[in-house]
Amino acid sequence: MTIAVPAVLLFVPAMAKDKVATHQVHFAKGITGSTIKGHVKGYDTVNYKLGAKAGQSMGVGLKSSKAFFTIIAPGKKVIFDGTIEGNSYLDTLPTSGTYTIQVYLMRNEARRGTTAPYTLEIGID
């Protein structure tokens, strides 16, 4: 039993290194979209949060050779999973509130410590 406790504790520092960066997205007055350039590394995640209303159309496109994105609606419901559905989303939003666009690497790339640059395009009308 005493061997299991130290083994478990060895994993805690590795998990603590995973970073989640969160950025609020605001569009300038009269502008309905934005292009964001960034990068994601290893198990880190970048979250982009933006407010929208039910019935608005939202388009999201990701240009990257290794990164993916997921869209989470208010209430934590995933409405788009880029690992399954591809690198672009266009649809009418189901509810009003704050939407989160998560950019991340698949586990195999994260395990290698890969750094992936990306360009994220977000538009709402």
Topology:
Blueprint lengths: L3 H13 L3 E5 L8 E9 L3 E8 L4 E7 L3 E7 L3 E5 H4 L2 E5 L4 E9 L1 H5 L3 E10 L1
Parallel strand pairs: 1-3
Antiparallel strand pairs: 2-9, 3-8, 4-7, 4-9, 5-6, 5-8
Explain what you see.
The protein starts with a helix and ends with a strand. By secondary structure, the protein is α+β, with helices and mostly antiparallel strands. Strand 5 and strand 6 (about 75-80) form a beta hairpin. The protein has three helices and nine strands; from the N terminus they run H-E-E-E-E-E-E-H-E-E-H-E. It has a single domain, classed as Jelly Rolls (Sandwich), CATH 2.60.120. The model is unreliable at about 1-15 (pLDDT under 50). The longest helix has 13 residues, at about 5-15.
